[in-house]
Amino acid sequence: MDLPLEFRELLVRRRYSANTVRTYCSMFRGFMHFYRKFDLQSITDDQIKDYINFLIEKKNVSISTQNQVINAIKFYYEHVLGREKKKYSLDRPRKERKLPKVISQKELIRLVLAASNLKHQCIIALLYSAGLRRGELIGLRVEDINFDRMQVFIKGGKGKKDRVSILSERMAVGLTKYLAAYSPNYWLFEGPNRNQYGASSVGMLVKRAAKLAGLKGVTPHVLRHSFATHMMEGGTDTRLIQKLLGHEKLDTTAIYTHVSKSSLLKISSPFDSIKTENFRKKSLE
């Protein structure tokens, strides 16, 4: 089913990421198919809510997918058709706040060493050492690595915002060897014919290395979570971690305090403050 021409064009003109464009187009195409016998411009708010309920009750979609569908529908009616936001509303679900999965530094070493070559080792190590998203890593150019200032420049990260992250000394050594061995032209990590490295290829090489290292559930984003958590455990200020990760809200960064071992070690249970003499004999002590 063909999308309205202006739907995709407007997404591109507004410089949405290629990933977001694909997702919105896919989500809206599903909506169009559901109401294929109706004129899109005449569909009511109640019909839209019925579609969302159908996805929840019949398709059992995740909260994340549900939000993406809502965003795609809102984009069409509010931005493509130019309708006012106050005339179009949907109850949004609360997104589940799951604790991020992290791996230990020992597990990270196993993961890096399990990678098949220097290039793959550098990809895994840089995802972790600079706290990068997968899309940010493949978007790096050779010139974005500043060895003098020991910084990684991330151009147009999430929300189209530029930021700077750290280049570790060990990572600088690895990248120096990598640049000498592979001589990339423009993109730091190149695919076939010197094109930009593929996001799916990054996911596959991490998954392959994880399997060889005997680790389960490790993805590129787990490496980013691990970077943030280990920084938190090392005593780095939360606001600095927020800047390194490119989080808009401090609350997003603060979730790593819930998985930081050092934070947990600083907390004592009120059970331990009870005086020993208050316990009867044959108690826990």
List keywords for this structure.
single chain, 285 residues, mainly alpha, DNA polymerase, domain 1, hpI Integrase, Chain A, three-stranded antiparallel beta sheet, 51% helix, globular, disordered C terminus, Tyrosine-type recombinase/integrase
Question: Could you characterize what this model shows?
Answer:
By secondary structure, the chain is mainly α. It has two domains: 76 residues, Tyrosine recombinase, N-terminal domain (DNA polymerase, domain 1, Orthogonal Bundle); 162 residues, Intergrase catalytic core (hpI Integrase, Chain A, Orthogonal Bundle). 51% of the residues lie in helices and 4% in strands. The chain is built from 13 helices and three strands. It has a three-stranded antiparallel sheet with strand order 1-2-3. Helix 2 packs across helix 4 and helix 6 packs antiparallel against helix 8. The longest helix has 18 residues. It is globular and about 60 Å long. The termini are far apart. The C terminus is likely disordered.
Summarize the structure.
The chain is mainly α. It has 13 helices and 3 strands.
Q: How would you summarize the topology of this molecule?
A:
Elements: H1 5-13, H2 18-34, H3 45-57, H4 63-80, H5 105-114, H6 118-129, H7 134-138, E1 145-146, E2 151-154, E3 163-166, H8 169-182, H9 199-213, H10 220-233, H11 238-245, H12 250-254, H13 261-265
Helix pairs in contact: 2-4, 3-4, 5-6, 5-9, 6-8, 6-10
